[in-house]
Amino acid sequence: MKRAVTPFLLLVALAILALIPFDLGREMPAGDEVEVGNVAWMLTASALVLLMTPGLSFFYGGMVCSKNVVSTMLQSVIALGVISLLWIVVGFSLAFGDDIGGIIGDPRTFFMFDHDVASSITLGEGPSAVKMGIPLLLFSMFQLKFAVLAPALITGSFAERVRFSAYLLFMVLFSVIIYSPLAHMTWHPQGLLAQWGVKDFAGGTVVHISAGFAALAGAIFLGRRQAHMENVTHEPANIPYVMLGTGMLWFGWFGFNAGSALAADRVATLAFATTNSASAMAMLTWLFLDWARGKKPSAMGACIGAVVGLVAITPAAGLVTVRHSLVFGFLGAVVSNLAVSMKTKSTLDDTLDVFPCHGVGGIVGMILTGVFAEEVGLWYGQTETFIYHMIALVIVSVFAFFGSLALYKITDMIIPLRVPHDQEVAGLDYSQHGEAAWRLNGSTAHDVPLVEVQEEALVAGVS
């Protein structure tokens, strides 16, 4: 394997950059009063959202075949490192910095967090400005966890065939060019979609729809796996991993949704309750729908359904009633289940059904938010919010899909995205990382020839 010197040199440059003080000529406004209780809750919520990324790694890792468990899990976990550093340098400024045309933030606004970001400030200007009530640094760390999760979600679509170094480059490009503008347009008070009145309480649009369409683009661009073309039955490596990951995701999602209230208040409580109700409804809907269609009630189905319910309620968690959250869970599960069935009958190789679950689940949630959002939805006799949601849905979908296609192409021109055929057959755990998830008869999988590994794995029931 070639030595990769460039990534290390970039870290050296960043360490040197951190020693240089910068005066970009921007004075921070006077700090607002900080609510201690809100700070305590948001510290907790931020930690909960961080837990979702390792939870996703278990969720995805258990679904792939045994020779790709480590690589798939690492693709989620490594995002914690890459996006965390990118966020400090430029990501947070692009997403929440001084508005530029309602599309993007000024990258100089919070560059390297040189200012007194431990104080609370008002985000935005004029009538739409929002008083934070928590330290800006805490808000940025909370939002960081969302930025980490988005590229991690995408990895399920091209699992078992992507080159690790190319994925690292794509992750950076996606975060800067796709995620940050969407976050600014939707969540910054002066963002384009925010000015239209588009509601995305906790990331159904910014995180799940963007990741879903990027996943669809990735599955198309990288093409089908060899096993998929040969119609080899895919056997998950470890269903208990999937169940563990589901539990971690469900637990962390309370921070994801309830934390988006940015306060320990009524809205956070409502988001907490609707999140749980929608997920419970979706889990049972998926399970019983499969059962009604002649399939066995499976642990995998229950877990996927639960996550789809979490996805569907995310854009509306603090904006709808608990009763209506059941509709989100039910319709999200039904539509995504049917989407998975349609994908299975097609030639699309979205390995872990990222688009049918996260993309379609996010779309269902966004549409239903326009219907059931309290006081402004169709259910309450209002049409403006729903119309703008439909317009925003088209804009975000087109931007995320075609923007991601372009980024895949650019990445592939710099570093080939897909691993060679022999490395795909051997498995990414060994070919990309020199590691293995399982020990077979006292040896790791890469200590013995591939054929022996496959034979022993079949006997052990972990293939």
Give a brief rundown of this model.
Helices cover 64% and strands 3% of the residues.
SSE map:
Blueprint: H1 6-17, H2 36-61, H3 69-96, E1 99-100, E2 104-105, E3 122-123, E4 130-131, H4 136-154, H5 164-187, H6 192-196, H7 204-222, H8 226-229, H9 239-258, H10 266-292, H11 299-313, H12 322-344, H13 354-372, H14 384-414, H15 421-426, H16 428-433, E5 439-440, E6 443-444, H17 450-460
Helix pairs in contact: 2-3, 2-4, 2-9, 3-4, 3-5, 4-5, 4-7, 5-7, 5-14, 7-13, 7-14, 9-10, 9-11, 10-11, 10-12, 11-12, 11-13, 12-13, 13-14
Describe this structure in words.
This protein has 463 residues and is an all-alpha fold. The chain has two domains: 35-418, Ammonium transporter AmtB like domains (Ammonium transporter fold); 422-460, no CATH class. Helix content is 64%, strand content 3%. The strands form three sheets. It has a two-stranded antiparallel sheet with strand order 1-2. A two-stranded antiparallel ribbon has the order 3-4. It has a two-stranded antiparallel ribbon with strand order 5-6. Helix 11 (299-313) crosses helix 13 (354-372). It starts with 5 loop residues before the first helix and ends with a helix. Residues 445-463 have low confidence and may be disordered.
